[in-house]
Amino acid sequence: MIVTNVFGLGRSIDNNNKCKGQSPGRTEIALFFLTIWSQKGEKMRYCTNCGAEIKDGSKFCTSCGKEVNGGMTLEKAIHSFFEHYLDHSGRAGRREFFYIFTSRFFVFFALNLLIMTIFRNIIIIKNALVIAYMAFVLLTFLPYIMLCIRRMHDSGKSGAWLLIYAVPCIGPFWFLFLLFKEGDKTPNLYGPASEE
Fold first, then answer.
1. What is the extent of the structural domain holding 29?
2. pLDDT tens digits, residue range 173-194?
3. pTM of structure
4. Do 140 and 166 touch, CB atoms closer than 8 A?
5. Is there a contact between 111 and 61 (Cβ–Cβ < 8 Å)?
6. Is 7 found in the same domain as 62?
7. Contact, 112 vs 133, CB < 8 A?
8. Residues facing 46 on adjacent strands
9. Please, are residues 147 and 93 in contact by the beta-carbon 8 Å criterion?
10. Is residue 93 within 8 Å of 196, Cβ to Cβ?
11. In Å, how far from its chain's centre is CA 180?
């Protein structure tokens, strides 16, 4: 007997996959969510070198023999971000982009908060923070553009798609959609699958 909690209501499903005391509509809903929850950790992974499917728990790709790592982390994303400072070739996965996108946002937010509120009356500290802010902008602008180009490559698009941002009204929204869109799972024109 499996007990689930769908929409806050306790339900029990017997071994014949029938919910006790419910209409068929609720039964189907309960089974649907139970199926999703039971498969939550079973996402397929693919080799970043050859694109072959990797089974859970494998440490090496069965096709090419490359060691499989645990995926993209914040540290790996930051290292990759600065390692590929002016490199637009290759691909960048959604997780790498998301880590850099949110990290930059929080640094910008924190520096603006410090400049505009806490140190707004202390001129020397405020000026130092403004200089730090501008240095951060200048140091991360080009790598961020290169990351966006590699992100476009991940879904099989040219880096020229960044120019869609210049289209009035809809351009920025379409640009964000392209950046957060899932990339190709297999090797494409721009290289092997990105590390997720």
1. 2-38
2. 999 899 888 888 888 888 887 7
3. 0.63
4. no
5. no
6. no
7. yes
8. 53
9. no
10. yes
11. 7
